[in-house]
Specification:
With about 375 residues, the chain is α/β, with parallel strands linked by helices. It contains 14 helices and 11 strands.
């Protein structure tokens, strides 16, 4: 495998004559500012075409200001028939629209060796459901081969609940998927039916080992949706990594004033924690329910017992909004229960009280949470 280009030297001297590359990673956003004189859409096209018979892994981050580079890449992509890994970052690229996805998807569908696909369309404003459907069709055609799928639609405009439903149907055509990462942060038009459709489709992925769901700042997720996910997890006995990021960005003050806004309760959290007991091989666990759930002492105690039973666990990240509901003795008990875990990395935030009248208590509690985190390290 050839080394990646060194941008501290003139760009052409590093890669202009490189041939036989099997792996290539380029940050075109950085190159735009570092090597303006040496880089052009035609140059990218030449790099890709002269390595079209050997390139197996390609990672590109595009600049929001150069639409011609994207067009050059799509032209060259049709010649890259040896690709097995493809990562494309179109974050904040407003020149990407439905037609762009149509052209890209039609070519991707003809890449027979593609097993790993990573596409980021964060903050896109000019892509509609029509464009996302083109991508869904490509997934269905590649479904028999794909093993790793990473799709990032965070804070994209025009996202509808039907987009998640359509994607869920496409995922059902990807039976070999071992790793699935989906991010829909800020897509407030998501509804319960979309999350339920996603849960149903994941239940058919028998080879799934790593799962990451990012539904940040989506109020429609309730106890019912967590229970639907839990029923799917119960069928997945071989999961090695679970990441659930359901953080809400609304302030906790409003939630304390109106209990009706607390749509996730102990009921939903119990459903999630119970399924962890059946996944003895779990190595990574991330649970982020900050601002959308006020954890009680019962859940913290159950969490400690669950972690203790996950003997293979190596990485843990937990974020709850206790809001002062957990006593000092419960935190200390939590520390004692999990201190025997052989963790490589950890981050534990059980939450602190934010009230203006509770500053001293907050400081004391904060020190306890730091103690809890330290106690997790062997």
């Amino acid at each position: 495998m050839h080394p990646l280009p060194n941008l501290s030297q003139p760009y052409g001297q590093n890669i202009k004559f490189a041939k036989g590359l099997t792996s290539l990673s380029l940050d075109l956003h950085t190159i735009q500012y570092v090597q303006q004189d040496d880089f052009s859409p035609l140059f990218l096209q030449k790099i890709l075409l002269q390595n079209s018979k050997t390139l197996k892994s390609l990672s590109l981050r595009f600049s929001p200001k150069n639409s011609q580079v994207i067009k050059a890449f799509i032209f060259a992509l049709k010649h890259l028939r040896t690709l097995s890994i493809l990562s494309l970052d179109f974050s904040n690229c407003q020149q990407v629209n439905d037609e762009t996805l149509k052209d890209l998807s039609s070519i991707l569908a003809c890449c027979p060796g593609l097993i790993d696909i990573d596409i980021k369309l964060c903050y896109s404003l000019n892509i509609s459901s029509k464009g996302r459907k083109f991508l869904d069709k490509a997934l269905r055609k590649l479904g028999g081969c794909l093993k790793n799928i990473n799709l990032d639609f965070r804070y994209s405009a025009n996202v509808r609940n039907s987009d998640l439903v359509d994607l869920s149907k496409s995922l059902e055509r990807c039976p070999k998927t071992a790793s699935l990462r989906l991010a829909w942060a800020g897509c407030k038009k998501m509804e319960a039916s979309g999350v339920q459709a996603l849960s149903k489709s994941m239940g058919k992925l028998k080879n799934l080992r790593n799962l990451s769901l990012g539904l940040v700042d989506i109020p429609s997720v309730t106890d019912q949706e967590l229970e639907d996910l839990a029923r799917v997890f119960n069928k997945m006995k071989d999961l090695e990594s679970i990441e659930l990021n359901f953080k809400q960005k609304n302030g906790g003050v409003m939630r304390r004033q109106d209990d009706e806004m607390r749509k996730i309760s102990d009921r939903g959290m119990q459903a999630i924690l119970k399924i962890l007991k059946d996944n003895k091989g779990l190595m990574t666990l991330l649970l982020n329910f900050k601002e959308c759930y006020e954890a009680g002492e019962k859940i913290i105690k159950m969490l400690a017992l669950v972690l203790k039973e996950c003997v293979c666990l190596k990485r843990v990240k937990l974020n709850f909004g206790c809001q002062g509901n957990v006593k000092k003795e419960v935190v200390q008990e939590f520390c004692r229960e999990v201190e025997g875990l052989n963790l490589l990395s950890q981050s534990v935030d059980l939450g602190v009280c934010r009230g203006d009248n509770e500053i001293q208590r907050m400081k004391k509690r904060d020190s306890l949470f730091k103690l809890a985190a330290r106690s997790l390290v062997v």
